[in-house]
Amino acid sequence: MDAVGVVCEFDPLHRGHEALLRRAGASGQPVVCAMSGNFTQRGGPACAEKFVRAEMAVRCGADLVAELPTPWAMATAEKFADGGVGLLSRCGVKTLCFGSECGDIDALWTAAEVLLREDIHRAIRAEMDGGLSYAAARQGVLEREAGCGGLLAQPNNTLAVEYLKAIRRRGLAADAITVRREDGGHHGAASASQIRALLAAGQAKDAFALMPPQAADILDREMKKGLAPADPTRLETAMLARLRLMSETDFAPYDGGGEGLYRRVYRAVQAGVSLGDILTRATTKRYPTARVRRMLWAAFLNLEPPPAEVPYIRVLAATETGRKLLRQMQDSGVPVLTKAADVGRLGPAAQALFTQEARRTDVYTLAASPLPCGSDWRKTPTMV
Predict the structure, then answer these.
(1) Buried b (16+ CB within 10 A) or exposed e, 98-135
(2) Residue 64, beta-bridge partner list
(3) 41-44: which pairs have CB atoms within 8 A and are 24 or more residues apart?
């Protein structure tokens, strides 16, 4: 059974996401989502825990939601996209569907093909040696080479290009569809960041109005239980304590560019008195805030580099159609995980990753409603 795939966070799921899921399902094929777990690519906890957001997805058009674990979910755009595409390919996905500001699949493919060239990598590195950030260097080189560098000035275009690069790099015979986003969301819908800002300001009713009713009802239910929204400031003191205990060289493994950023971050941690203060001190034109934030959260969570592949497909939610697809996956030997207790059967790599993810969930709950440790071992998928 071929499927259509979406790499996502749904933090939270808004009307634009619903439109994307509808477009993905227009062919009648199952819609599979590779969704970030409890921590997201921007750096920090998701507004609602992963099983809740997965339930939103299956109520709004998805058939199967699988977890993209934290090492990929909180990585650079390139590794985030590669992890998601790799996970979806193991689920039988033959078509990838994603949003982009440009809505031009041909232009996105052009950018992806150029950026895969080795000479382009060398040209980008040369620009960085002149003091530019990676993003600025890449955009400038792409503009000179193909005249489409402006695509990378917008975040969803950038992710779209990374999805296409992942398809090519992995040698997948996969198709791709893009849905144009406008005004911060698909078809003019509000962005997830706007909704999170409203929730943080205590304006839940306004936030719910920007979400599909099914998703809003689920989030409202969790808020009434006191389980959402997660507040990252609740983790700030613990985070500062962890960072202050680290030596300069302790930060080095989290400096993905190998450019010495870890030294700057260490100095900022020593001088800063809040997370915002540290970000201000460490951020420069070359080292943007988003990169520094991810580095700090990776250090706090003791995040390991993502392996080449996600060693299991952890199911968070599924419809009846999704369950049929799961049975086919299991019959073909895909390492599907529906019960946490079964992870040991999938080998040491799977068990080690799951154990780490469970510990990160124990930390995540402190940002919402503190729970005893071990909740990730007890959770089961939502079946609708």
Answers:
(1) bbbbbbbbebbbbbbebbeeeebeebbeebbeeebbbb
(2) 32, 318
(3) 41/9, 41/73, 41/74, 41/75, 41/77, 41/80, 41/294, 42/290, 42/293, 42/294, 43/74, 43/290, 43/293, 43/294, 43/295, 43/296, 43/297, 43/298, 44/232, 44/293, 44/297
Structure tokens at 254: 């989290």
Contact, 101 vs 180, CB < 8 A?
yes
- Cα angle, residue 257 at apex, residues 255 and 259 outer, rounded to 5°: 85
Q: Which residue is it, tokens 């009846």?
A: 320
**313-318/64-68 β-pairing:** antiparallel
Task: Dump the DSSP string for 177-205.
Answer: EEEEEETTEETTPPPHHHHHHHHHTT-HH
Lookup: tokens for 48: 């609602």
To 5 degrees, how large is the angle CA 238–CA 340–CA 316?
80
For 255-281, how does the pLDDT look when each residue is reduced to its tens digit (9 = 90+)? 987 778 999 999 999 999 999 999 999
What's residue 132's pLDDT? 85
For residue 224, give both structure tokens.
Answer: 């009434």
Closest CA to 109 of 96, 92, 126: 96
In the predicted model, is pLDDT for residue 184 greater than 60?
no
Q: What is the DSSP letter of 286?
A: S
Q: Give the CA distances from residue 337 to residues 116, 185, 346, 384, in Å, rounded to whole numbers and listed in that order.
A: 33, 32, 9, 18
End-to-end Cα distance, the chain: 20
pLDDT average, residue stretch 327-346: 95
Q: Residue 133: left (phi > 0), alpha (psi -120 to 50), or beta?
A: beta
